[in-house]
Amino acid sequence: MSPRAFKSRRTTLAVPGSNPRFLQKARDLPADEVFLDLEDAVAPSAKARSRELVAETLRAGGWEGKIRAVRVNDASTGWAYRDVVEVVERAGACLDAIVLPKVSGPRDITWLDLLLGQVELATGLPPGGIAIEAQIEDAAGLASADEIAAASPRLEALVFGPADFMASLGMRSLTVGAQPAGYAGGDAFHYAHMRILVAARAHGLQAIDGPYAAIEDVAGLERSSASVAALGYDGKWVVHPSQVDVVNRAFSPAQDEYDRAELLLEAYDYYTGLALGAATLDGEMIDEASRKMAMVAAARGRAAGLPRTTRFEPPIPG
Ligand code: GLV
Ligand code: MG
Question: What pTM value is reported for the model?
Answer without folding.
Answer: 0.91
